[in-house]
Design a protein that fits this description.
The protein is of the alpha+beta class. The chain is 47% helix and 18% strand. A hairpin with a 5-residue loop joins strand 5 and strand 6. The longest helix has 21 residues. It starts with a strand and ends with a helix.
Length: 158
């Protein structure tokens, strides 16, 4: 089963991950997204351990997969190699406004949608790149991502 795990940056600068669709409360926190994910995964494993100790075999975490959904502040902090000024200029946003969003300033739903679309557009452009490696073999960014996630049948067959 696949369920949502929401990543948010709080006003205090702490990153939190939570699962709104499960009966069990699972939470991860950290000063970075990576720390919050590690804490979240630890919480999942602890809960699975509690179920095992209680002899509960059929619980909501059996076969669970988490699909992470990020708020804009978390994306901009985690992927800090994104040049905010260049991103803003490319998509005709105010750079100071994007910096404010990164700091956790309120963003309207409409503006959040526009920024999200711009981030997704950039991600799709990166995924469309075909790279020739040293052996002059063509490799697409998408096939690399697929192999990392175990969804590329060619990589799985190797």
């Amino acid at each position: 089963m696949k369920t949502r795990a929401i990543i948010e940056r709080g006003k205090d600068g702490i990153f939190s991950i939570f699962t709104p669709d499960l009966k069990s409360s699972i939470l991860g926190e950290g000063s970075t997204v990576a720390e919050a994910k590690a804490d979240f995964e630890n919480s999942v494993n602890e809960l699975k351990g509690f179920f095992a100790e209680d002899g509960i075999e059929d619980h909501e975490l059996v076969g669970i997969e988490f699909e992470y959904f990020w708020d804009i502040a978390s994306v901009l902090h985690h992927f800090d190699w994104i040049n905010i000024t260049k991103f803003a200029n490319r998509h005709k946003f105010s750079a100071s406004l994007i910096h404010q969003y990164k700091s956790g300033t309120y963003i309207s739903d409409e503006q959040a949608r526009k920024v999200l679309e711009a981030l997704q557009e950039d991600a799709m452009e990166i995924l469309s790149v075909n790279i020739r490696d040293v052996g002059n073999r063509k490799t697409s960014a998408q096939s690399v991502v697929s192999s990392l996630h175990g969804t590329d049948k060619r990589a799985a067959a190797k």
